[in-house]
């Protein structure tokens, strides 16, 4: 798979999960100390930097690859 | 004068000193004044992006929406995060394009990409039409915050604020907004943490008991209404899609992105900025607490939920800090709105189509002069006709999302034509305006902005395919490179 496709798949995971998951996490229940919708949205808010950070690492070629490309 | 008022005035005075000192020793020209010479690294760019994004809505609208609508308010914590995911992909190539062609406004992109000063002028006028009510809304919010927290009359505080803003924007431009944002963010983060944690703890012993009590006394309030009800799950999903697309489409928000030093600065901010959204969630809990502590607020009075509880609960110096931070939460976005409104009119309307031979220095001087004019217009509306621009403001929030297809497709699709982009934009904005004027808050349970974007995209693509000129390979090649 192309690197850019992997980057997009990783980066868009929180976007798709947060919006799509509302179909299941929108009732009046509670998860931990939060209303379930609050838990679901805040979970993905907190995870977004992780997913974007990983996507960013994948996007940037490693130093070795850069060196190889330059040669 | 009470202690709260003294503290709030001291905060604003410090902001003015910072704003004037921000100019530095560099020779001021249009690029320095509007986009700070594209020089900001990760930290200052993060502060500026947060500064223009988190406005008086943080203190007023977010907690008020939670008070009035319960669990549906959590979309407020989510849409910015979705916007940062989108921005990770489309802002870096846009920044590269803007740097290469010396673009300083959103309308510059349309002028350059479609080789059409008239299209640029059209988007500039639409952008300014959406920004003036936004300035007015921030001014009204500032008046409410300052009056509630300090007792200073709201008209007096609005007049004082705009005079100060006009002075430091005239002198220092974008740099003033960025450096005042540093102070604003420190105060905003501090006060929201204190108020957002202290109020639930003070009245309920913690968040868990607060949520328990709300669920017991108001069953169903913290869930999302069933599909078919206003603000149900389809509304929430479609609102997240629309508002995340609109997030960077206000001209002042997009121009703030041009201040970044590099593409990687923008990507890093897309990674870190979602953390700010957790802070916003605290204000939602204050809104839920207010449902139990100050019940019975109706209509626009719900926007005062957080402030009412703050005044009722906190010592006066903390209330003063909230007042000062609330004032800065208006001052920073207003600075950027004024800066961009004036530059759009001077560069994209006056120089773009009326007097094309005007020099860059002439545009710079005219932009500075127009800051005073736009300030005066917005202030007069805010004082004498506060309700007149409400429809335009409501239209603006969904209306700016209609720029999204033309900008994103403009970066990645060679065959996008001026006719396609203009048709999609005009019809999209018309649909949004119709839904606002007809008071249709939802269409088939969905946010009407989503329907407008879908029609916009279909028309943009369809008309472009029908009118494709196949003559802009250079634009496409430089724009597409490295989008992902």
From TrEMBL, chain A:
> Keyword set for this entry?
Membrane, Transmembrane, Transmembrane helix
Enumerate the transmembrane spans: 5-25, 37-55
Transmembrane is among the record's keywords: yes
Q: What protein am I looking at?
A: DUF3311 domain-containing protein
Give the originating organism.
Answer: Amycolatopsis albidoflavus
Q: Please name the taxonomic classification of the source.
A: Bacteria, Bacillati, Actinomycetota, Actinomycetes, Pseudonocardiales
UniProtKB/TrEMBL annotation, chain B:
Membrane-protein topology: Multi-pass membrane protein
**Keyword Flavoprotein found:** no
Transmembrane stretches in the record are: 6-22, 43-67, 73-95, 116-135, 155-174, 186-205, 235-258, 270-297, 317-345, 366-384, 390-412, 419-437, 449-467
Which key words are in the record?
Cell membrane, Membrane, Transmembrane, Transmembrane helix, Transport
Where in the cell does this protein reside?
Membrane
Keyword Transmembrane carried by entry: yes
Q: Which domain of life is it from?
A: Bacteria
Q: Which PROSITE patterns match?
A: NA_SOLUT_SYMP_2, NA_SOLUT_SYMP_3
**Gene3D superfamilies, per the entry:** Sodium/glucose cotransporter
Against InterPro entries, the record matches this protein to: Na/Glc_symporter_sf, Na/solute_symporter, Na/solute_symporter_CS, Sodium:Solute_Symporter
Q: Which Pfam families match?
A: SSF
Q: Which family does it belong to?
A: Belongs to the sodium:solute symporter (SSF) (TC 2.A.21) family.
Query: What PANTHER family would the database entry show?
Result: MONOCARBOXYLIC ACID PERMEASE, SODIUM/PROLINE SYMPORTER-RELATED
**UniProt name for this protein:** Sodium:solute symporter family protein
């Amino acid at each position: 798979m192309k690197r850019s496709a992997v980057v997009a798949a990783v980066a868009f995971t929180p976007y798709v999960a947060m919006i799509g998951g509302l179909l299941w996490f929108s009732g009046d229940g509670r998860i931990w100390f939060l209303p379930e919708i609050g838990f679901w949205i805040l979970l993905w808010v907190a995870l977004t930097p992780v997913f974007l950070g990983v996507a960013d690492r994948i996007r940037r070629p490693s130093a070795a690859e850069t060196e190889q490309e330059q040669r | 004068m009470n202690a709260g008022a003294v503290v709030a005035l001291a905060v604003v005075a410090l902001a003015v000193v910072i704003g004037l000192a921000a100019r530095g020793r560099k020779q001021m020209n249009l690029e320095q004044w509007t986009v700070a010479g594209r020089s900001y690294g990760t930290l200052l760019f993060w502060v500026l992006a947060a500064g223009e994004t988190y406005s008086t809505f943080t203190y007023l609208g977010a907690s008020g929406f939670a008070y009035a609508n319960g669990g549906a308010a959590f979309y407020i914590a989510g849409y910015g995060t979705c916007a940062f995911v989108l921005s990770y992909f489309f802002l870096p190539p846009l920044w590269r394009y803007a740097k290469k062609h010396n673009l300083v406004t959103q309308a510059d992109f349309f002028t350059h990409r479609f080789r059409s000063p008239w299209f640029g002028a059209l988007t500039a006028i639409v952008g300014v039409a959406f920004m003036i009510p936004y300035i007015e809304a921030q001014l009204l919010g500032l008046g409410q915050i300052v009056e509630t927290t300090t007792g200073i009359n709201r008209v007096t505080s609005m007049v004082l604020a705009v005079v100060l803003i006009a002075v430091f924007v005239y002198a220092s431009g974008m740099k003033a907004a960025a450096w005042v944002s540093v102070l604003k963010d420190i105060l905003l983060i501090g006060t929201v943490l204190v108020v957002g944690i202290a109020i639930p703890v003070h009245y309920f012993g913690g968040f868990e008991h607060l949520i328990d009590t709300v669920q017991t006394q108001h069953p169903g309030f913290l869930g999302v209404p069933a599909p078919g009800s206003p603000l149900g799950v389809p509304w929430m999903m479609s609102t997240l899609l629309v508002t995340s697309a609109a997030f960077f489409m206000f001209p002042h928000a997009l121009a703030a992105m041009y201040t970044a030093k590099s593409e990687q600065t923008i990507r890093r901010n897309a990674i870190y900025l979602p953390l700010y959204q957790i802070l916003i969630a605290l204000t939602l809990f204050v809104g839920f607490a207010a449902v139990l502590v100050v019940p019975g607020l109706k209509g626009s009075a719900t926007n005062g939920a957080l402030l009412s509880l703050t005044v009722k609960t906190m010592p006066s110096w903390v209330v003063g800090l909230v007042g000062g931070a609330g004032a800065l939460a208006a001052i920073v976005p207003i600075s950027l709105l004024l800066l961009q409104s004036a530059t759009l009119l001077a560069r994209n309307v006056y120089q773009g189509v009326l007097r094309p031979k005007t020099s860059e220095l002439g545009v710079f001087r005219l932009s500075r002069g127009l800051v005073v004019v736009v300030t005066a217009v917005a202030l007069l509306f805010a004082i004498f006709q506060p309700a007149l621009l409400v429809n335009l403001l409501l239209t603006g929030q969904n209306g700016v999302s209609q720029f999204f297809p033309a900008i994103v497709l403009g970066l990645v699709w060679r065959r996008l034509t001026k006719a396609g982009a203009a048709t999609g934009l005009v019809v999209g904005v018309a649909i949004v305006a119709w839904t606002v004027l007809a008071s249709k808050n939802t269409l088939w349970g969905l946010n009407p902005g989503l329907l407008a974007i879908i029609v916009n995209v279909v028309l943009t693509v369809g008309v472009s395919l029908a009118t494709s000129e196949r003559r802009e390979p250079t634009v496409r090649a430089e724009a597409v490179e490295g989008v992902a």
